[in-house]
Design a protein that fits this description.
Number of helices: 4
Radius of gyration: 18 Å
Number of strands: 10
Distance between the termini: 33 Å
Strand order of the largest sheet: 4-3-2-1-5-6-7-8-9-10
Strand content: over 45%
Length: 172
């Protein structure tokens, strides 16, 4: 996720809560890894995804969303509660690219995110402005203004941009 190091966190596995455990979220494989013993840093366990309900690392809560339709893929999503009527879910992804330079092969990882909005008990993929405008047609002008005023943030930190945008839309 944000680092290769283990971080202290909380886990709900098969309905059972586990506190103060070392967790690491592998974005490339969409895999949650636990280190059961601090004394043995080499022992790591990849948890079965279908048994993980949720986990929390650095005050960021991740939910294991199961695919109920074809508009999004299953996996761990950061849950950002915006208000009473909207919850933003962020799916962090990492793609591996082999870069060939001369006789050497380098591995380059490219990060990107997908955004789901839970509104009126329905999940909608909102990776672009047109999807947002379909969801909030009465807020079209405000959405366009936000995109215009925050284009630098959108380029430098897409995740923060989307969090702020959904917060902005739901405050009106």
């Amino acid at each position: 996720y944000s680092t290769d190091e283990f971080k202290n966190g909380t886990l709900i596995y098969e309905g059972q809560s586990y506190f103060n455990i070392d967790l690491k979220y592998d974005l490339f494989n969409d895999q949650l890894v636990v280190r059961p013993y601090i004394e043995s840093p080499y022992i790591q366990i990849n948890l079965l995804k279908e048994k993980v309900d949720s986990f929390k690392i650095d005050n960021e809560k991740f939910i294991n969303l199961k695919q109920t339709s074809t508009n999004f893929k299953s996996g761990y999503y950061e849950e950002v509660i915006i208000g009473n009527n909207a919850v933003l879910y962020i799916k962090y992804n990492k793609e591996k690219n082999d870069v060939i330079r001369g006789y050497s092969v380098f591995i380059d990882y490219k990060s990107h995110s997908d955004y789901l909005l839970l509104k009126d008990n329905k999940f909608t993929l909102i990776n672009d402005k047109t999807e947002l405008i379909k969801l909030y047609p009465d807020q079209k002008r405000k959405i366009n203004d936000f995109f215009l005023m925050n284009k630098d943030l959108r380029k430098t930190n897409q995740v923060l941009f989307m969090k702020n945008l959904i917060q902005y839309i739901n405050n009106f």
